[in-house]
Design brief:
Structural class: alpha+beta
Shape: elongated
Largest sheet: 4 strands, mixed
Number of helices: 4
Number of strands: 6
Order of helices and strands: HEEEHEEHHE
Number of domains: 2
Radius of gyration: 20 Å
Length: about 200
């Protein structure tokens, strides 16, 4: 009987280990809302992506040339009941860069991988490695990049309280040698210029 019990425990341990690996590799943790979530009830009969809602104004933050401040620029994105979809649209607009005399805060060629928002309000934003490889060096430029992302998401989405930045699907110790990326960032609206 004890041999049977030992075999049963070994089998259960292997099954548990496989389930844990599958859970963490799938990316669908139960406390995370992703853009691949089931459509909201008002999107009846549509198996594809959600139809774009009416436009909604959002404020994006870009760097000002004369100092280390961020300046707001209004854009329109499709409104959506999913803060994840709106977050993806906000980041896509940030990647496009400013329209006026402000400085881009994300280097050309940067791509957004994934964006998740947890129940506690932490947004996980995963950028391609281009954000680091093509980034101008310096702590001021890194801070402008990080807080352009953090402030743009937190300012426009009530669901976002802090932002954790990933590069190439992985955590990094620093952005590009200056600013630490080992923690989530809370918005810092004091960096926004008063005009």
């Amino acid at each position: 009987m004890s041999r049977f019990r030992a075999i049963l425990l070994a089998v259960l341990a292997v099954v548990l280990a496989v389930l844990v690996v599958l859970f963490f590799r799938s990316g669908n943790r139960e406390d995370i809302r992703t853009s691949a979530a089931a459509p909201a009830p008002q999107q009846k009969g549509s198996a594809g992506p959600a139809a774009a809602g009416p436009p909604r104004k959002v404020t994006l933050f870009f760097a000002r040339e004369e100092d280390d401040r961020l300046v707001g620029e209004e854009r329109e994105i499709p409104s959506d009941p999913s803060p994840v979809r709106e977050g993806r649209d906000i980041i896509a607009e940030l990647i496009k860069g400013p329209t006026g005399d402000r400085l881009a805060t994300l280097p050309e060629g940067t791509k957004l991988g994934q964006l998740f928002i947890t129940k506690d309000g932490t947004a996980y934003v995963d950028f391609s490695r281009d954000i680091v490889a093509r980034h101008p060096s310096g702590s001021s430029a890194e801070r402008a990049t990080v807080y352009a992302v953090v402030n743009s998401l937190a300012f426009n989405l009530k669901a976002v309280k802090k932002v954790f930045i990933l590069i190439g699907g992985e955590e990094r110790e620093t952005f590009n040698g200056h600013l630490g990326l080992d923690r989530p960032f809370r918005p810092d609206f004091a960096l926004i210029a008063k005009r």
